[in-house]
C-alpha cells in the first residue's frame, strides 16, 4: 500500500478517527461496512477471499459481520498482522503462486464473496498507475471466476478511467447484477468507486478475451508504451490532457486552476472543462480579481466550473478575451513571430521597428484606458438614473467595445508591422504619422456640429473614429461578432464534451439542476440532502394512530406530548413566578403585614373575595380567638356528622381540652389565650380543621367580619347541651340524641353559597382512582420516552450507520413508542365444572384472565356480617 502521509488537509477525517476509536486498522474498513449495509453480502456468506487485504481493515469487518467459523482468507503483497479467525499470507495476486496458494487454502470450498481493494503503489506517472490498477482489477476478477460460487459476490475498487465502461461491460457478462457505488466514507476527491457484482453466473466456459487486458484495455496498453518514453523526456512533448481522468502527477479528480492559467491558456475551453474551480490566489490573479471587469457574476461562476451554463461560459470567455487584451497577451504571443519575420529585414530598421511597435502599443493602451473610463462613467450615470441605456448606446455598443478595441489594436498593429516588414525607414515615418493621425482622430477629434443629431457626441465616440468608414466598419464589426459568437458556441460545446467525459452522470445532473432539484455533485451534499429528507422532515406525529383513536381519554402519544407541554409550561411558570417574586419582593402581599401564622390563616381561599376584612387590622393578638373559632368550627362540622368523640374522664381531670357531646370544645382557661394553639396542631390535624359545614362557615364569617368575638362566641355556646353526660347511656340512645337533640346554629345564605362553591370545585377534581390511573399512564409514557431516548442515543453513537439510516431508525422507534396499544382483554373464567379448583392457567385460555368463584361474593358478604355480629357481642 502506498504510504501516504496523513498530514494533508482532510486526510485525518472523521473516518480516520472513527477507525482509530473502533480498533480498525484502516479507515477503509468503513467503506466495506457501508457497502455491506447497502448490499448485505457478508451476513449470509461463509467463505470470503480478500485480495489486496493489508493492513487488514476489510478482514476485520468481514470477521465481525460474517457468521462465526466462516473461512476468511486475506492476501497481500505485504504481510498482514494476524487477525483471529482469519488466514492471511503474503503473495502477489498477479502470480500463479498466489492462485495455487489460494487453492490450497480453499481445498474443495468455493467462495461466497471475493473482495478486491487493491491499489498499486501510486507513483508520479498516472497512466502507469491506472494500468496497474486495471490490471489488478482484471486479475482479481480472474481469481474471482476461479473461486466464486454460483450466485456469489465480487466487490472491487476501480478508478474512473476511460476503461471504466469496458470493465463494467465485462462484469456484466459474468454477473447478474452489477452496480457501481461510492460509499460515503470514500473521499470525494478520490477517483475511486466500488463496483459490486452480485449473482455470479458461473459460466462453464469464459471467453478468455473477457479477462485479457490486451483485449479489454487495448488503448491503455498503447498509452503505456507512450508514457514509457515520456519518462525519459518528460518535457519533450506537449503535455497531453488525459481524458481518462487524471493529469500526470495529479491523482485527484478535484482540480482548481488559477485565473491566470485560464487567461493565459491557449485552450480556454479545455482548461475550464478540466477544472472544478478557478481561484485568484497568485498575486497576478488577485490584481485581476480587483479589476472592474471581474464582476460578481464572474467570481461566482469561478467557484464551481462544473455547473457553468452557456451564459456563464460566455461571460467567462469574454472576460478572458478582455483581460488578454488588457495584458497584451495576444501581442506578446505574436511578438516572436514578428521578431522572426524581422530577421529578414535590415538590422538598422530593427531598433526603430521595436521603438515604433512600443509607441504604438503605448498609444493603444492609452486609448483603451480612455474608452474604458468613458464606459465606466456611463454606467455610473445609468445607475444614478441620469441616463438610459439607449442614450449611451450600451446595447449597441457597450458589450462589444472591448472587442472593438481589441480588433482595432490588432488591425492597426498588424497593418503597421506588415508595412514595416516591406518598407523603408521613410515609409515607417509616413506610416507612423498615419497611425498618429488616426490615433489623434480616436482620442481628440473635436465635436463635429454636423453630427449633432447623433446619439454619440464628442471625441469619445468610438463610432466616429473614422468618419468615412463607419458603415463599412459596422458591417465588419457585425461579421466579426458573429464569428466570435460561433467560435464561442464551438468552445462551449467543447467544454461540455469535456465535462461529459469527466463525469458519466453529467447529463443527469444538469437535468436535475434545470429542474431545480439539483443536489450537488458531491456525496457530501447528497448526504446533506438525504439528511434533510430524513431527520429534518420530522415524522408527522400528529397523524399517528392517536388521531384515529376514538377514546375520549388522552391516547398515549398525546400523553407524551402533553407531558412535554406540561414540562415546558411548568418551566415557564417557574420562570414567571421567579420573575414575579423578583418584582414584588415576596411570595404573598399579606405576609408582609401579618405574622406567619396569621398570614397562613388569612391565606385560606375562604377569605378570598370576602369584603370588609381589613387584614391590617387583624393582629396576632386575635390569634387565640382564631384558634378557638377553628376548633369550634371543626366541632360544628363533626357535630353535623354526628361523629362525636368522647374523651376519657381522665383527660378532663387533667384540664385538657374536652370535646363535649354537643359538639363544642370546652377550652381550658389557661389555654384560651395561648396563641400557640394553632401551632400545636400537627399537619394531619390541621387538615381536619376545614370549614366543612354552613354553620362553621357562618361562624367564621361573623368572626372575620367582627360581628362577634371569641368571648361572645364561647358564652353563646354554654347552653343546656354543654354538660350532657352520656357515659352510662346506651349506644342507641346516644346515637339518636346526637341526631336530634343538639343546638341549632345560625346559618347564613352567603355561607351556604360559599360552601357549595367549594364543594363544586372539589367535585370537579378527578376522583382518586382516576387520578391514579392517569398518573400511571403518564408514568408509563415517561418510561417509554426515556427508553426511546436511550435507544436513540445508542443509534446515534452507532458509527456503522449512515445519518439517513439513523434518522429512519429513530423515526421508527418514535412511531412504535407512540403507537397506542390495544387494551388487552381480560377473560373472566368462572371456577366451576372443569375449572373448579384449577391451579394456574386453565386449559385453552390465552392472554389475560381472571378466575372467579361463583360463591365468592356471597361468602364474602356472609363473612362481613359475621364479623360485625361478633364485634357487637364483644362490646
Ligand atoms: C488500499 S490497500 C487495501 C486496504 C485494505 N482493504 C484494508 O482495508 O486494510 C491496497 C493494498 O493493495 C496491495 N497490493 C497492491 N498490489 C498488489 C498485488 N499485486 N498483490 C497483492 N496486493 C497488492 C497493497 O500492498 C495494499 O496493501
UniProtKB/TrEMBL annotation:
It is found in: Nucleus, Nucleolus. The lineage of its organism: Eukaryota, Fungi, Fungi incertae sedis, Zoopagomycota, Kickxellomycotina. Residues 24-200 form the Ribosomal RNA methyltransferase FtsJ domain. Belongs to the class I-like SAM-binding methyltransferase superfamily. RNA methyltransferase RlmE family. SPB1 subfamily. Residues 638-648, 860-875 have a biased composition (Basic residues). It holds the Pfam family Spb1_C. The keyword Transferase applies. Residues 579-589, 626-637 have a biased composition (Low complexity). One of its GO terms (molecular function) is rRNA (uridine-2'-O-)-methyltransferase activity. This is AdoMet-dependent rRNA methyltransferase spb1. One of its GO terms (biological process) is maturation of LSU-rRNA from tricistronic rRNA transcript (SSU-rRNA, 5.8S rRNA, LSU-rRNA). Its main location: nucleus. The gene is SPB1. Residues 659-868 form the Ribosomal RNA methyltransferase SPB1-like C-terminal domain. It comes from Coemansia thaxteri.
Amino acid at each position: 500500500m502506498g504510504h501516504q502521509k496523513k498530514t494533508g488537509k482532510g486526510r485525518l477525517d472523521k473516518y480516520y478517527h472513527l477507525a482509530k476509536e473502533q480498533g480498525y486498522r484502516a479507515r477503509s474498513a468503513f467503506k466495506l461496512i457501508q457497502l455491506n449495509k447497502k448490499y448485505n453480502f457478508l451476513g449470509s456468506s461463509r467463505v470470503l477471499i480478500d485480495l489486496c487485504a493489508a493492513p487488514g481493515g476489510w478482514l476485520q469487518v468481514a470477521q465481525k459481520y460474517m457468521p462465526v467459523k466462516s473461512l476468511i482468507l486475506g492476501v497481500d503483497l505485504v504481510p498482514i498482522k494476524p487477525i483471529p479467525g482469519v488466514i492471511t499470507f503474503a503473495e502477489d495476486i498477479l502470480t500463479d503462486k498466489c492462485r495455487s496458494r489460494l487453492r490450497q487454502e480453499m481445498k474443495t470450498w468455493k467462495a461466497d464473496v471475493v473482495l478486491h481493494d487493491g491499489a498499486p503503489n501510486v507513483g508520479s506517472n498516472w497512466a502507469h498507475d491506472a494500468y496497474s490498477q486495471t490490471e489488478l482489477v482484471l486479475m482479481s476478477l480472474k481469481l474471482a471466476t476461479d473461486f466464486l460460487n454460483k450466485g456469489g459476490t465480487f466487490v472491487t475498487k476501480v478508478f474512473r478511467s476511460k476503461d471504466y465502461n469496458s470493465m463494467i461491460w465485462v462484469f456484466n457478462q459474468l454477473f447478474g447484477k452489477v452496480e457501481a457505488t461510492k460509499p460515503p466514507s470514500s473521499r470525494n476527491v478520490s477517483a475511486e468507486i466500488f463496483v459490486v457484482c452480485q449473482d455470479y453466473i458461473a459460466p462453464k466456459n469464459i471467453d478468455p478475451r473477457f479477462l485479457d487486458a490486451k483485449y479489454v484495455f487495448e488503448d491503455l496498453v498503447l498509452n503505456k508504451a507512450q508514457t514509457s518514453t515520456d519518462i525519459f523526456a518528460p518535457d519533450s512533448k506537449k503535455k497531453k490532457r488525459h481524458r481518462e481522468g487524471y493529469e500526470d502527477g495529479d491523482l485527484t479528480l478535484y482540480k482548481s486552476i488559477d485565473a491566470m492559467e485560464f487567461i493565459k491558456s491557449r485552450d480556454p475551453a479545455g482548461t475550464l472543462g478540466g477544472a472544478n474551480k478557478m481561484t485568484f490566489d497568485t498575486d497576478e490573479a488577485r490584481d485581476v480579481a480587483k479589476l472592474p471587469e471581474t464582476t460578481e457574476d464572474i467570481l461566482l461562476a469561478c467557484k464551481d466550473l462544473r455547473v457553468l451554463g452557456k451564459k456563464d461560459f460566455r461571460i467567462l470567455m469574454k472576460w478572458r478575451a478582455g483581460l488578454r487584451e488588457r495584458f497584451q497577451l495576444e501581442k506578446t504571443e505574436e511578438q516572436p513571430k514578428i521578431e522572426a519575420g524581422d530577421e529578414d529585414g535590415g538590422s538598422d530598421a530593427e531598433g526603430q521597428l521595436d521603438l515604433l511597435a512600443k509607441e504604438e502599443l503605448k498609444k493603444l493602451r492609452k486609448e483603451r484606458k480612455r474608452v474604458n473610463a468613458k464606459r465606466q462613467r456611463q454606467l455610473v450615470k445609468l445607475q444614478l438614473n441620469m441616463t438610459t441605456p439607449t442614450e449611451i448606446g450600451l446595447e449597441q455598443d457597450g458589450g462589444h467595445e472591448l472587442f472593438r478595441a481589441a480588433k482595432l489594436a490588432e488591425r492597426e498593429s498588424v497593418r503597421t508591422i506588415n508595412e514595416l516588414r516591406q518598407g523603408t525607414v521613410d515609409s515607417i515615418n509616413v506610416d507612423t504619422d498615419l497611425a498618429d493621425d488616426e490615433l489623434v482622430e480616436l482620442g481628440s477629434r473635436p465635436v463635429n456640429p454636423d453630427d449633432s443629431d447623433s446619439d454619440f457626441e464628442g471625441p469619445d465616440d468610438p463610432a466616429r473614429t473614422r468618419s468615412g468608414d463607419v458603415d463599412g466598419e459596422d458591417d465588419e464589426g457585425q461579421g466579426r461578432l458573429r464569428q466570435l459568437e460561433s467560435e464561442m458556441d464551438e468552445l462551449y460545446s467543447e467544454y461540455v464534451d469535456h465535462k461529459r467525459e469527466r463525469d458519466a452522470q453529467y447529463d443527469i445532473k444538469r437535468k436535475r439542476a434545470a429542474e431545480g432539484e439539483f443536489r450537488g455533485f458531491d456525496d457530501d451534499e447528497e448526504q446533506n440532502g438525504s439528511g434533510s429528507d430524513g431527520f429534518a422532515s420530522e415524522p408527522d406525529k400528529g397523524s399517528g394512530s392517536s388521531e384515529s383513536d376514538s377514546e375520549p381519554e388522552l391516547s398515549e402519544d398525546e400523553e407524551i406530548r402533553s407531558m412535554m407541554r406540561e414540562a415546558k409550561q411548568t418551566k415557564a411558570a417557574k420562570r414567571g413566578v421567579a420573575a414575579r417574586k423578583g418584582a414584588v419582593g415576596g411570595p404573598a402581599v399579606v405576609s408582609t403585614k401579618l405574622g406567619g401564622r396569621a398570614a397562613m390563616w388569612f391565606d385560606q381561599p375562604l377569605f378570598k373575595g370576602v369584603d370588609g376584612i381589613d387584614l391590617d387590622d387583624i393582629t396576632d393578638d386575635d390569634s387565640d380567638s382564631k384558634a378557638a373559632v377553628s376548633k369550634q368550627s371543626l366541632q360544628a362540622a363533626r357535630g353535623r356528622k354526628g361523629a362525636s368523640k368522647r374523651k376519657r374522664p381522665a383527660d378532663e381531670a387533667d384540664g385538657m381540652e374536652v370535646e363535649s357531646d354537643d359538639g363544642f370544645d370546652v377550652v381550658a382557661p389557661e389555654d384560651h389565650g395561648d396563641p400557640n394553639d394553632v401551632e400545636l396542631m400537627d399537619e394531619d390535624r390541621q387538615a381536619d380543621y376545614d370549614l366543612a359545614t354552613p354553620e362553621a362557615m357562618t361562624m367564621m364569617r361573623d368572626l372575620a367580619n367582627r360581628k362577634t368575638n371569641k368571648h361572645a362566641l364561647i358564652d353563646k355556646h354554654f347552653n343546656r347541651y354543654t354538660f350532657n353526660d352520656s357515659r352510662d347511656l346506651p349506644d342507641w340512645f346516644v346515637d339518636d340524641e346526637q341526631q336530634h337533640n343538639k343546638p341549632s346554629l345560625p346559618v347564613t345564605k352567603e355561607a351556604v353559597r360559599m360552601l357549595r362553591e367549594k364543594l363544586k370545585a372539589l367535585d370537579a377534581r378527578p376522583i382518586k382512582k382516576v387520578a391514579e390511573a392517569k398518573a400511571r399512564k403518564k408514568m408509563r409514557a415517561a418510561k417509554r420516552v426515556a427508553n426511546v431516548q436511550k435507544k436513540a442515543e445508542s443509534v446515534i453513537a452507532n458509527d456503522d450507520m449512515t445519518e439517513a439510516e439513523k434518522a429512519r431508525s429513530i423515526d421508527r422507534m418514535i412511531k412504535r413508542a407512540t403507537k397506542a396499544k390495544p387494551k388487552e382483554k381480560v377473560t373472566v373464567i368462572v371456577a366451576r365444572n372443569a375449572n373448579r379448583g384449577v391451579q394456574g392457567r386453565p386449559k385453552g385460555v390465552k392472554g389475560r384472565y381472571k378466575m372467579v368463584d361463583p360463591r365468592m361474593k356471597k361468602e364474602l358478604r356472609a363473612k362481613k356480617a359475621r364479623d360485625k355480629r361478633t364485634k357487637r357481642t364483644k362490646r
